Amino acid sequence: MHFIVENMHCEGCAKGVTAAVKQADPSAQVEVRLEDRSISVNGGRLGGEALRSALQDAGWKAAATPS
């Protein structure tokens, strides 16, 4: 699953986004790309909408993108 996280700007943000995903789904693997404000999530148990919701609840403006 791929997401654009509009308000992710720095390494601190990347750590916060990763923590939000891992809190919602500890088995997920998160790859962050700051240059285009995107993340890829693999190997987790939650679906895209559940992860997007978890990110939104943590204060991140996330939108799913096509794979």
Automatic annotation (TrEMBL):
Superkingdom of origin: Bacteria
HMA domain segment(s): 1-63
CDD domains named in the record: HMA
Gene3D superfamilies, A to Z: 3.30.70.100
PROSITE patterns documented for this protein: HMA_1, HMA_2
Keywords noted in UniProt: Metal-binding
Record protein name field: Heavy-metal-associated domain-containing protein
